[in-house]
Structure formats: structure tokens, C-alpha cells
Amino acid sequence: MKHLALAPALILALALPVAAEKLPLGQISGYLNAMTTAQSKFTQVNDDGSITTGTLYIKRPGRVRFEYDPPEAALVLAGANTVAVFDNNSNTGPTTYPLERTPLSIILAAKVDLNRARMVTGHREDGNTTAVTTQDPAHPEYGSLELVFTGPPVELRQWVITDDSGARTTVILGALDIGLPLSDNLFNIALTESQTGRDQR
């Protein structure tokens, strides 16, 4: 009975987990565009192997806040087209630079379109995740951003920033709380600088 001989192999095949299909770029773009606000715990793995943790806040377009847990005395804000890095151990104020010079600006844009020419340099499926490597088509020298998603339904799980010097920073996200109200003050660099100055006096 040839069909009975094949039965164990068929049962085994059905028992194996089915690998997820690669998520389409249009579906991922739609997910990011629908993400107006988000909050999550995160773990950051730096290029030197050190690890930090904290809480991430996103308010699209253009705003993000990284609050680092103690003993890390740092806060990173993006707002008004500027990134500001606050170090509470410094008395010189935040270090600032244009948001457009960081690859993170790709997902903070008012409209994300991963099908735009030369924006995506890698798109692959790895088990149950889809990884998309992106860059600014006009300025690839600014570095790249690799985004890792699970789904469907689509959910952002982590990203890896490779900066213009080649250094890599990985941010691993916890469960994303999407759509909650977030005050604009969380992303106000001038307000945060004035509050930090008062705290140091």
C-alpha cells in the first residue's frame, strides 16, 4: 500500500512549522504610515558590545524620544528636524545635528514609501521575520537602517542603524503600544534643555 507508506512523511511535514512569507514593501509602508504614535521598552546593543535599556516614544512625523534607564545618564530627542543628545553629566548642553542626517529619519518621514527608487537595498525573509535594509536615496553616505518585522499582522520588532562611520547600533523593541496620546512636550528640545538646566542648579 504505497499511499500508507507515505502517510508518516505527510504527517511529519504537516507537523513542521511553516516559514512566514516575506512581507511586501507596500504592506510595511502602510503599517509605518498608520503608526502615528508608539511607546515601547527597548534594549540597545551598541557597537562596542555594551547594552543599555530604556523607553522609546515615537510621534510621527519627525519625533522620537529615547529615555535611558539609570545608570545611563542620557536622553535622545528628535523634533523640529533636529536630533539632540542630552548627557546629564555634561554642563555644555545637548549635542545637536540635523534629523535628515540619521537613517532613522526614513521611518519618521511624513510619508514612508519603501518602493521609492534606490531606498531599499535589501529585502529578505529569515524564518518568521522580514528584514528590510533602507537608505536615503539622495544621501547613502548618511548610513543605513535595517528594520525587522514579524507578521502578518505586521509588527516592528527591531532595527539596526549603521552610521556613516560603519558603527552599528541595534535597538530591540518590546511590545509596541500604538495609538496612545503623547504630549508634544516629550519631543520639545528647547523645553527639555531649560528643564535640564534647572535640574542641574
Please, could you describe this protein's structure?
There is one protein chain. This protein is of the alpha+beta class. 20% of the residues lie in helices and 38% in strands. It contains 4 helices and 12 strands. It has helices spanning 2-15, 25-34, 105-108, 189-200, and strands at residues 37-45, 51-59, 63-68, 74-79, 82-87, 95-98, 120-126, 129-135, 144-150, 155-162, 168-173, 177-178. Strands 1, 2, 3, 4, 5, 6, 7, 8, 9, 10, 11 and 12 form a 12-stranded antiparallel β-sheet that branches. A hairpin with a 4-residue loop joins strand 9 and strand 10 (155-162). The longest helix is centred in the first third of the chain and has 14 residues, at 2-15. It is globular, with a radius of gyration of 20 Å. The model is unreliable at 1-18 (pLDDT under 50).
Give the structure's gist in a few sentences.
This protein is of the alpha+beta class.
Task: Give the tags.
4 helices; 201 residues; globular; twelve-stranded antiparallel sheet; alpha+beta; single chain
- Share of helix, binned: 10-25%
In whole angstroms, how far apart are the ends?
87 Å
Shape: globular
State Rg.
Answer: 20 Å
| Largest sheet features | 12 strands, antiparallel
Low-confidence parts: 1-18
SSE layout and pairings?
Elements: H1 2-15, H2 25-34, E1 37-45, E2 51-59, E3 63-68, E4 74-79, E5 82-87, E6 95-98, H3 105-108, E7 120-126, E8 129-135, E9 144-150, E10 155-162, E11 168-173, E12 177-178, H4 189-200
Antiparallel strand pairs: 1-2, 1-11, 1-12, 2-3, 3-4, 4-5, 5-6, 7-8, 8-9, 9-10, 10-11
